[in-house]
Amino acid sequence: MDELRTERLLLRRWRPDDEPAMAAINRHPDVGRYLNRPVDEASVDAFYGLIVGHWETHGFGAWAVEHEGDFVGFAGLAYVPPFLADAGPAPELGWRLDPRKWGMGLATEAATAARDDAFARLELPEVISIIHPLNTRSQRVATKLGLTLDRQIHNPVLGISTDIWRARA
Ligand SMILES: CC(C)(COP(=O)(O)OP(=O)(O)OC[C@H]1O[C@@H](n2cnc3c(N)ncnc32)[C@H](O)[C@@H]1OP(=O)(O)O)[C@@H](O)C(=O)NCCC(=O)NCCS
Description:
Elements: E1 3-5, E2 9-12, H1 18-27, H2 29-32, H3 41-58, E3 62-67, E4 70-78, E5 92-97, H4 106-120, E6 126-131, H5 136-144, E7 148-155, E8 160-168
Antiparallel strand pairs: 1-2, 2-3, 3-4, 4-5, 6-8, 7-8
Helix pairs in contact: 1-3
The protein binds coenzyme A.
Coenzyme A binds next to strand 5, helix 4, strand 6 and helix 5.
InterPro entries: Acyl_CoA_acyltransferase, GNAT_dom, N-acetyltransferase
GO molecular function: acyltransferase activity, transferring groups other than amino-acyl groups
Protein name: Acetyltransferase, ribosomal protein N-acetylase
C-alpha cells in the first residue's frame, strides 16, 4: 500500500524532496515545543532517514501528508524509541503538521486515515499516542480520534511524567 486518500488529503510514501520541507517544520519552535525530546540540528538531520528506514524495516510507518499538492507534514505509525519503552510494545500513532496548516482539521483527517489503515489493513489490535500533558492541541486530535488517556510514564529525556493515550481496534 503506497497511499491513502481522504476528502482533502493524500497520504503517501516519502520522497527525497520532502526532506527539506520536513526539516523546516521540525525546526519551527511552535512544532518542537511539546515533542518527546528536544529538537536539535542532529535530530532534524536524522529525521528523514529514520522515517524512511522505519518503512523499509517494518513495512509501515508515518505517511507523508499532502494538501492541495503541497507537502504539509506527517501522520502515522512508528515504534516507540527505547527511552520510552515503558509505553509498551504497541506502535505510536503520531501527527505533526506545518503550523500554517493548523486549525483546519487536517491533522485529525490525516490521523483518522492512518488509524483506520492501522486497524483494518495492518490488523493492529491497538495503537498508542504519547502526548505531553501540556499539548492541548494534540490532546484534542487524540480525543477526536477516539483515543483515551490510559496512564502516565516517566520521560527520562524531558524529566517529566507524560501521558499515554490508547485506542483499540
Ligand atoms: C498537534 C497538531 C498536529 C494539531 O494540529 P491542529 O490543526 O490544531 O489539529 P486539527 O487538524 O485537528 O485541527 C483542529 C481544529 O481545526 C478546526 N477545524 C477547522 N475545520 C475543521 C474540519 N473540517 N474538521 C475538523 N476540525 C476542523 C477545529 O475547530 C479544530 O479545533 P478544536 O481542536 O478546537 O476543535 C499541530 O498542533 C502540530 O503539528 N503540533 C506540533 C507537533 C506535535 O505536537 N505533534 C503531536 C505530538 S503528541
